[in-house]
């Protein structure tokens, strides 16, 4: 039996479908760029793990039978004018605190959050929860949307 066919049989038996789907391209890339076998295997394992995590999330979302998936930006807060958005955000983050991983993307400095949320104590408590055990990445430069918009204007 040919080595690739045997490998594919073994990968199917081990239920490493993403590994099976990508190994030939990764091996070719590793050979072309003189990368060692361990790096190639590490990359394949990382892709397999990422795909399994995505599949697990998709399965849980499907099992939850949500009628629709929404992000905070999708909610129409104006439909309930007396709703305290800062309190909703605080409650939401507090409920998820240390239970799930969260990614928060903003172009505001922490000092500016009080201006947006309105309440200093609530903002401090929210930032405390968000930054506890956090990895904060501060990016410098023009936002990509701004660059895209400028490119369209120039074109």
How would you summarize this macromolecular structure in one to three sentences?
Helices cover 61% and strands 0% of the residues. It has 155 residues and is mostly helical.
Could you characterize the architecture of this molecule?
- It is a single chain.
- This protein is mainly α.
- It folds into two domains: 3-64, no CATH class; 70-155, no CATH class.
- It has seven helices and no strands.
- It has helices at residues 3-13, 17-32, 37-64, 85-96, 113-117, 120-131, 144-154.
- Helix 2 packs antiparallel against helix 3 and helix 4 runs parallel beside helix 6 (120-131).
- The radius of gyration is 23 Å and the shape is elongated.
- The mean pLDDT is 85.
Core attributes:
single chain, 155 residues, mainly alpha, 2 domains, elongated
Give the domain tally: 2
- Written as H for each helix and E for each strand, in order along the chain, the element string is HHHHHHH
Distance between the amino and carboxyl termini: 57 Å
The tally of helices reads: 7
Query: Average pLDDT across residues?
Result: 85
The overall strand count is: 0
Q: Estimate percent helicity.
A: 55-70%
- Biggest sheet descriptor: none
- The rough form would be described as elongated
Strand content: under 5%
Q: Determine Rg (CA atoms, Å).
A: 23 Å
Class per helix and strand makeup: mainly alpha
Point out poorly predicted stretches: none
């Amino acid at each position: 039996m040919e080595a690739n066919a045997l490998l594919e049989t073994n990968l199917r038996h081990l239920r490493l479908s993403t590994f099976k789907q990508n190994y030939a391209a990764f091996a070719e890339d590793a050979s072309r760029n003189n990368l060692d076998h361990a790096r190639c295997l590490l990359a394949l394992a990382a892709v397999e793990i990422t795909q399994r995590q995505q599949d697990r999330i998709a399965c849980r979302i499907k099992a939850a039978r949500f009628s629709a998936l929404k992000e905070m930006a999708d909610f129409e807060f104006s439909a309930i004018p007396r709703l305290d958005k800062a309190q909703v955000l605080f409650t939401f983050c507090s409920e998820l605190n240390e239970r799930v991983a969260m990614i928060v993307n903003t172009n505001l400095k922490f000092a500016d959050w009080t201006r947006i949320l309105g309440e200093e104590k609530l903002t401090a408590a929210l930032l405390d929860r968000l930054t506890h055990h956090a990895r904060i990445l501060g990016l410098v430069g023009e936002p990509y949307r701004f660059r895209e918009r400028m490119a369209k204007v120039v074109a």
